[in-house]
Amino acid sequence: MNTFPIILGIESSCDDTAAAVIQKNKILSNVVAGQKVHQSYGGVVPELASRAHQQNIVPVVNEALKQAGITKDQLSAIAYTRGPGLMGSLLVGSSFAKSFSMALGIPLIEVNHMQGHILAHFIEDANEKPPEFPFLCLTVSGGHTQIVKVSDYFEMEILGETIDDAAGEAFDKAGKIMGLDYPSGPIIDKLAKQGNPERFHFSKPKVDGLNYSFSGLKTGILYFINKEVEKNHDFVNENLDDLCASIQKTIVDILMDKLIKAAKQTGIRQLAIAGGVSANSEIRERLKEFQKEKGFEVFIPKFSYTTDNAAMIAMAGQLKFELHDFSELTIPSVAKYHI
Ligand code: KG4
Ligand code: ZN
Predict the structure, then answer these.
(1) Cis peptide leading into 5, omega within 30 of 0?
(2) Which bound ligand lies closest to the C-alpha atom of 15?
(3) Which helix (H) or strand (E) holds 223?
(4) Residue 22 — φ and ψ, nearest 5°?
């Protein structure tokens, strides 16, 4: 093993307990334990999430060290998610990270989860090559929808964001209305492949500037489906693929319209995506079309670095380590954390 610092990343902001090890931008291990317990609730149950994190955190970290082929004594620092997220979930990761860094006598590094999603682009195998500054990043997850201008690793400006629901929530709530399990995003993505996206039309929000809104779409879908189900009880089952394709197209149209508007306004030609919803196949396809037809340079990260993971936290941690940007043990976790 050479002498470059080795950082352990820990992520526990929502319902995934994750640990990863990085050295010189290269991920040595990336372990995620999801939580099936929320599937039938239509969303994450915070109390159940913190309990599952408590059970998972030690085995997940052990596994990450094992897969990386290192022992804890070889670690140079511990990076962890400080926020944003569910407080009970964040506290499990932060308490573990603080105790571990204290026991090993190595630095503690706090990471903003949303910055982590964006900085995942700098992991060696995330893309063919990393984006250059400045670039625009559409950061779309279960809790956030933001267009971010990234001028440097830790110099980020939100140009637009959702004024109500996040794009991931729009997928998940639409899924709940159709009786699908949580999280519905990946299920809708899969079913949409066999459906007709032009079959149903849902009205798009009119929001100023580069901001987004998804709550009206959710209500529109609910009213439409309720009305159709009154006429035919089996409406959802009989039309599930077309419903998924039409809903997905509407959400992706809304996301892409504002991203292109942001590119026009700023003159920035490099476009990236990040966050769980960026795993969506239609978003990825649409961006590739932008590259071919409009000449943008696009950056689409590897799947395993899109939904919540600790590799992105380890990456952000390594960049902070290089800046000697360390944290005190007294630093509190925060449910809201502006990038
Ligand atoms: O980033 P993430 O793993 O967790 C948060 O920080 O929120 O994002 C989770 C969100 C969920 O809403 C999930 O439905 C959505 O990402 N998602 C997808 C896909 N995979 C995950 N949405 C659409 N298509 C997908 N393939
Ligand atoms: Zn996330």
Answers:
(1) no
(2) 1
(3) helix 215-231
(4) -130, 145
pLDDT in tens, 225-259: 999 999 999 999 999 999 999 999 999 999 999 99
Paired strand residues for 79: 9, 109
Mutate which of 277, 303, 306 for ligand 1? The one with the most ligand atoms within 8 Å of its CB, which is 277
How is 250-264 classified by DSSP, letter by letter?
HHHHHHHHHHHHHHH
Preceding peptide of 186 cis, ω within 30°: no
CA distance 102 to 32: 24
Write the single-letter amino acid at 69. G
Q: Is the CB of 280 under 6 A from ligand 1?
A: yes
317 lines ligand 1 (CB under 6 A): no
- What is the C-alpha to C-alpha distance for residues 176 and 165, in angstroms, rounded to an integer? 15
Model-wide pTM > 0.90? yes
**241's tokens:** 């693929």
